[in-house]
Amino acid sequence: MEDAKAADWTSSKQIARGLWHSAATCTGIAFLTYGGLSLGFDLSAIGFVYLLFVVAIALFFGFWQASLASVLAAACSGLLLHDSPVSLCHC
Questions:
Q1: Total domains, the chain
Q2: Is the pLDDT of residue 26 over 60?
Q3: Within a domain: residue 84?
Q4: What pLDDT sits at residue 84?
Q5: Residue 82 main-chain phi, psi, to 5 deg
Q6: Quick check: 41 and 81 in contact, CB under 8 A?
Q7: d(CA 64, CA 82)
Q8: Which residues make Cβ contacts (< 8 Å) with residue 37, sequence separation at least 6?
Q9: Per the domain annotation, does 31 fall within a domain?
């Protein structure tokens, strides 16, 4: 009986940890995007910063959070393009 209860607690703890890592990943990408826009980075500079962030996420949090960071970074870098229909740059 206790083994099932311990296994249930462990799996809920792993889910909570995964959600926390995913939330930290999303927040990190949001801060990097805002900082890149505020400092006027071009696409190559912010792309390199995104790459470093994705590698750091892969080292510390794992594959799935790094995959999430990669997809979010690609989506946010698309927002930095001047010719994009949905752009955050009003230059």
A1: 1
A2: yes
A3: no
A4: 53
A5: -75, -30
A6: no
A7: 30
A8: 80, 88, 89
A9: yes
**What's the gap between Cα 2 and its chain centre?**
37
Rounded CA-CA distance 26/23 in Å is 5
> Which pLDDT band holds residue 89 (cuts at 50, 70, 90)?
low
What pLDDT was estimated at residue 41?
85
pLDDT tens-digit series, residues 29-88: 999 998 988 888 888 899 999 999 999 999 999 999 999 999 999 988 877 765 555 555
CA distance 66 to 22: 9
**Burial letters 18-53, b for 16+ CB under 10 A, else e:** eeebbeebeebbeebbeebeeeebeeeebbebbeeb
Task: Return the closest-CA partner of residue 18 out of 63, 60, 65.
Answer: 65
Show the domain range for 67.
2-79
Q: Are 82 and 89 in contact (CB under 8 A)?
A: yes
21 within some domain: yes
Output DSSP code: residue 89: -
